[in-house]
């Protein structure tokens, strides 16, 4: 008698149960993809990283008592040191040339031309500068003050 009942009741899942499970898995996957961060990072993170490197160049100019400059283009940025009366690329690992992240647009307000900001031995900049980074709908600005201050802000 026990065997007859086991064969009558069915031992699997119904089609409706399987459809519910597949729907739940699909919704969970959609939510996971939607909340995943951009693999390129946030544009504010890139602005903060740039600002930290500019601040490092400022500090290096003061510590070494040697002018250090920053150049910015729409494609990237880099740092130079004044050696023997000429600008040479900075050798420090933290001041190597860097390109903006994929999809990041940089606007220096100079119509695509290279902008150069020089920090003297006292840390003062020869000029102030403002850079706007944008990617997708996000924007961030980095302001370099003539007093050598550097600040990154979300726009």
Describe this structure in words.
It is found in: Cell inner membrane. The structure is a single chain. This protein is α+β, with helices and mostly antiparallel strands. The protein has a single domain, classed as minor pseudopilin epsh domain (minor pseudopilin epsh fold), CATH 3.55.40.10. It is built from three helices and nine strands; from the N terminus they run H-H-H-E-E-E-E-E-E-E-E-E. The protein has helices at residues 2-9, 15-35, 43-64, and strands at 68-72, 76-83, 86-89, 98-99, 105-107, 115-119, 129-135, 138-144, 150-154. Strands 1, 2, 3, 4 and 6 form a five-stranded antiparallel sheet that branches. Strand 2 (76-83) and strand 3 form a beta hairpin. The radius of gyration is 28 Å and the shape is elongated. It starts with a helix and ends with a strand.
Question: Short summary of the structure?
Answer:
This protein is an alpha+beta fold.
For this entry, give a set of tags.
single chain; alpha+beta; minor pseudopilin epsh fold; 5-stranded antiparallel sheet; 4-stranded antiparallel sheet; 3 helices
The assigned CATH architecture is 3-Layer(bab) Sandwich
Under the CATH scheme, which class? Alpha Beta
Query: What is the ordering of alpha helices and beta strands?
Result: HHHEEEEEEEEE
Largest sheet: 5 strands, antiparallel
| Uncertain spans | none
Number of strands: 9
Helix content: 25-40%
- Terminal CA distance: 76 Å
Could you tell me the CATH topology label. minor pseudopilin epsh fold
Mean pLDDT: 86
GO biological process, one term: protein secretion by the type II secretion system
Membrane topology: Single-pass membrane protein
InterPro entries: N_methyl_site, Pilin-like, T2SS_GspH
Domain General secretion pathway GspH: 46-148
């Amino acid at each position: 008698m026990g065997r007859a009942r086991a064969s009558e009741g069915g031992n699997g899942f119904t089609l409706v149960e399987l459809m519910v499970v597949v729907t739940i898995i699909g919704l969970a996957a959609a939510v996971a993809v939607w909340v995943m961060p951009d693999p390129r990072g946030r544009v504010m993170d890139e602005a903060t990283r740039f600002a930290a490197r500019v601040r490092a160049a400022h500090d290096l100019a003061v510590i070494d008592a040697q002018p250090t400059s920053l150049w910015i283009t729409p494609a990237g940025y880099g740092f130079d040191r004044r050696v023997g009366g000429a600008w040479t690329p900075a050798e420090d690992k933290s001041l190597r040339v860097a390109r903006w992240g994929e999809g990041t647009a940089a606007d220096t307000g100079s119509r695509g031309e290279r902008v150069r900001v020089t920090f003297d031995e006292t840390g003062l900049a020869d000029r102030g500068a403002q850079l706007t980074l944008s990617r997708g709908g996000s924007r961030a600005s980095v302001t370099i003050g003539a007093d050598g201050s550097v600040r990154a802000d979300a726009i």
